[in-house]
Design brief:
- The structure holds two protein chains of two kinds.
- Chain A has helices spanning 100-107, 128-132, 204-214, 218-230, 232-236, 243-256, 262-272, 277-289, 293-300, 303-306, 312-329, 336-345, 349-367; strands at residues 5-12, 25-30, 36-41, 45-49, 51-58, 64-66, 71-73, 78-83, 119-124, 141-145, 149-153, 159-165, 168-173, 181-188, 195-200, 377-381.
- By secondary structure, chain A is an alpha+beta fold.
- Chain A has three domains: 5-84, Immunoglobulin-like (Sandwich); 105-194, no CATH class; 204-374, Serine Threonine Protein Phosphatase 5, Tetratricopeptide repeat (Alpha Horseshoe).
- In chain A, strands 2, 3, 5, 6 and 7 form a five-stranded antiparallel beta sheet that branches. In chain A, strands 10-9-12-13-16 form a five-stranded antiparallel beta sheet, covered by helices on one side.
- By secondary structure, chain B is an alpha+beta fold.
- Chain B folds into two domains: 5-300, Rossmann fold (3-Layer(aba) Sandwich), CATH 3.40.50; 305-392, Sandwich (Immunoglobulin-like), CATH 2.60.40.
- Classes of the chains: A alpha+beta, B alpha+beta.
């Protein structure tokens, strides 16, 4: 008797040497009622009941790759279908230069740019610690540059672009994955303050996932994030590990409030990737979300050591939680509801002072966030000294 | 009057609790057509915020939500321009949107929402305000800048409302599906600087949440106030687009009790609003924060309408050139050329969401008609759908 199920593997001929690579989200829908029967990723084997299906794959810019015909699957079939991508646009890599020296001629600005009102510098180090506690001796260096594009390697992790103008400074995070490098281009319009940012993480799979997130392709980003959590060993332990991919996936699932499996995952992130500021933000938000406020608060008090999150949501989560804990701990609030919560936190006077300062700083950072960017971009701030 | 709609006794199962706030007539701000002043934070009275909230009130009464309405509360401070355009603003039973009234209404709204975790809440605010990051916003009520008081004493923070609606020891059975809409974004820098470390009095006492399994997305219009809410006597772009989205912003059918239905969620509403903003060249997109999840605000029983936009090149296809979209049953819908004398390659029509091919009939094609690949057409498709037939033309 034939197996009533059938199998389907979807292939995409993604052109090499382009911005995106790896697998792409696939959707298999019943051709009669259009209901999704299976979702997965390209190159993966999908098991579906026998039937007639319309098969598509999504690209990070919203384009749809399709097969020419409806796929007819009989019981026991094991078919492979190839999706046409010939009509679709695959963007090139941002820049493939690998060294600062080699890229200099292409990236250097025209001479007229020397006379603009913007002074650009590359900031290296954790500047947040000194902002929260001015007594901290900050190990921050500032390297002036005339560039509008740069490649930052993992050895330079925690680099920020500082653009100083008469009305304040902008700070742009440069997320870098472990043992990789990030190419970044920026343009800040001095009149409108409109910011154009482009990143290339020199990894097609990470580029692709980042673009799904940045372009608001939420269904696809969630689908990829779920597969990341299933294969978390690969992203966090083995040779091809990508903590930045794991971090992006965690943000997507937090936003979706899909918390299953995230306890161990976020705990590992914060234990293993102490160089990655967003690991802390994610752990704090996860703990607070599940009601483990005392543990969340303990982690939050450590934020000066970790630095400013590279992803916008991290700033917002930390601001929201810091403010909540300050309000709960405020001894001037005497309503019964808040009193009960205050007992849970158990904050001493020194920690109360510290969390107040963290809340103040993150309130300023949140109000300076560029809401058009996924990566942290702050405008109109004081100059980090 | 507190409730403008009260169906609590009739609706036994899950239902919806709605709180709508629209503030145009700011008591302490200059008129909408006066120059803005530093003393009044460069803000003026508005001319469409109250009407926008009223538009949403009218929309939700048309049985468009997933569950039946249980309660509706309406706080409106309309401008004379809006009352002229819509006299029902004065007779709808709304209360003016002062801070005191807002506190009372919001607490009552939460009390009603504590009855059933399967209930849904909707919060909509139109008026002055500022988004501060993805999770927070300061929103201004009609008595903003009341003399002798701290400047933000007559405002509220949406974060306080959202945190106060979280499941907690005192909110054990609160509705776990919550929608927040803020039609209130100010982007002008001179105003933003006033909102650094704002001291805004709480509406809800602060309490720590228990495990928060809510689906509670928060959507901000990000159009500058003058563009979003300065439409004299007309609802804002945001509210107009939201009302349309509640009729057709579905993208993916799902099976409910053996029938295919089309859910509208916050994510699909965002797609619809972004498309509207692009169409009207508003220069931005709406922003979603909060715990987004995938909450369904409405199920459509049938595939929704989709505005299809096709690009068929080259110009030299000439006349007659007929363009169709054909579904899998062979039913074709004509797609007429857009009325643009400078660009004869654009075609558009409205069809039901589904799987379609494009068909082009032209005597100039070597193989007539041309048929494209199939595409699953919903509002998510990137428009226009391009078809370049240059290589298929007969050589003359």
């Amino acid at each position: 008797m034939a197996d009533p199920k059938a199998s389907l593997t979807v292939k995409l001929d993604v052109p090499a040497e382009h911005r995106w690579s790896g697998t792409f989200p696939v959707e298999v829908r019943n051709s009669d009622n259009l209901i999704l029967t299976a979702t997965g990723v390209s190159d993966g084997r999908l098991e579906v009941p026998a039937g007639r299906y319309f098969v598509t794959a999504s690209l990070p810019n919203g384009q749809q790759a399709t097969v020419d015909d409806i796929v007819d699957l009989q019981p026991g079939d094991d078919k492979q279908v190839r999706l046409s991508v010939s009509d679709l646009d695959f963007p090139a890599t941002l820049e493939n230069t690998t060294t600062l020296r080699g890229s200099f001629k292409e990236f250097v600005r025209p001479i007229t740019r020397y006379f603009t009102a913007q002074n650009v510098a590359i900031l290296r180090g954790n500047w947040l610690a000194a902002v929260i506690d001015p007594k901290t001796v900050a190990s921050v260096s500032r390297q002036p540059t005339t560039r509008s594009s740069i490649e930052i390697g993992f050895s330079d992790v925690n680099a920020w672009i500082e653009i100083a103008a008469s009305d304040g400074c902008s700070y742009l995070a440069v997320p870098v994955d472990e043992n990789r490098s990030t190419t970044m281009q920026w343009h800040l319009d001095p009149k409108t303050s409109a910011l154009e940012l482009k990143f290339d993480f020199n990894d097609g799979e990470l580029n692709s996932f980042f673009d799904f997130v940045h372009n608001g392709q939420s269904f696809e980003a969630r689908s990829i994030s779920r597969s990341i959590i299933v294969q978390s060993e690969q992203y966090m332990v083995d040779k091809r590990r990508s903590p930045l991919t794991a971090i992006l996936g965690a943000y997507v699932l937090l936003r979706a409030n899909e918390l299953d499996g995230m306890d161990v995952w976020t705990d590992n992130l914060v234990n293993w990737f102490t160089w990655l500021p967003d690991a802390l933000a994610i752990r704090v938000e996860y703990l607070a979300r599940v009601g483990a406020h005392s543990a969340a608060l303990r982690q939050l008090l450590d934020v000066p050591k970790w630095g400013t999150p590279w992803i916008r949501s991290g700033i917002a989560y930390l601001e929201n939680r810091a403010k909540l804990y300050v309000n709960v701990a405020d001894p001037d609030r005497t309503d019964g509801v808040t009193d009960a919560s205050r007992t849970v936190l158990g904050l001493g006077p020194d920690d109360l002072k510290k969390i107040r300062r963290i809340a103040d700083v993150f309130s300023e950072l949140a109000s300076a966030l560029d809401m058009t960017q996924t990566v942290t971009a702050l405008h109109g701030l004081w100059r980090v000294s | 009057m507190a409730l403008v709609f009260d169906n609590r006794k009739k609706v036994v199962g899950p239902g919806v609790h709605v709180l709508l706030v629209g503030v145009s007539d700011y008591l302490n701000l200059p008129d909408h057509d006066e120059p803005p002043f530093d003393e009044t934070w460069f803000l003026n009275k508005l001319t469409s915020a109250a009407l926008s909230a009223f538009k949403i009130y009218e929309t939700i009464q048309q049985d468009v939500l997933r569950s039946p309405l249980k309660t509706v509360r309406l706080l409106l401070s309309p401008s004379p321009v809006e009352i002229d355009a819509e006299p029902a603003l004065e007779t709808a039973g709304a209360t003016r949107a002062s801070r005191v009234a807002f506190e009372r209404f919001t607490r009552d709204w939460r009390r009603d929402a504590r009855g059933n975790p399967e209930d849904m809440t909707i919060f909509y605010f139109a008026g002055h305000g500022l988004q501060r990051g993805p999770e927070e916003g300061v929103l201004l009520l009609e008595d903003f800048l009341e003399p002798e008081l701290p400047p933000l004493a007559r405002c509220f923070e949406i974060g306080n409302i959202r945190n106060g609606m979280a499941p907690s020891p005192t909110n054990t059975d609160i509705a776990l599906t919550q929608f927040y809409f803020a039609d209130a974004c100010l982007t002008r820098q001179e105003t933003q600087k006033k909102f650094v470390n704002p001291q805004v009095p709480d509406v809800f006492a602060v309490e720590l949440n228990v495990a928060d399994r809510r689906e509670a997305p928060m959507m901000f219009s990000t159009v500058d106030g003058t563009i979003a809410l300065g439409r004299a006597g007309k609802p804002s772009h945001f509210s107009e687009a939201l009302a349309v989205a509640l009729q057709r912003a579905a993208e993916e059918p799902t099976d409910v009790n053996g029938s295919a239905v089309w859910p509208i969620t916050m994510l699909t509403i965002k797609t619809a609003l972004d498309w509207y903003y692009t169409k009207h060249q508003l220069g931005t997109q709406v922003k979603i924060g909060g715990v987004v999840g995938s909450p369904v605000i409405r199920y459509l029983p049938d595939p929704p309408d989709v505005d299809v936009s096709l690009q068929v090149r080259p110009d030299s296809l000439g006349e007659p050139c007929c363009v169709w979209v054909c579904d899998d049953n062979g039913i074709a819908t004509a797609v007429p050329r857009r009325d643009d004398k400078d660009n004869k390659t654009q075609f558009g029509a409205t069809v039901k969401a589904g799987i379609y091919q494009v068909q082009v009939d032209s005597a100039r094609l070597t193989s007539n008609p041309y048929r494209s690949q199939r595409k699953f057409i919903t509002q998510r498709v990137q428009w226009p759908w391009p078809h370049n037939l240059a290589s298929l033309l007969k050589t003359s």
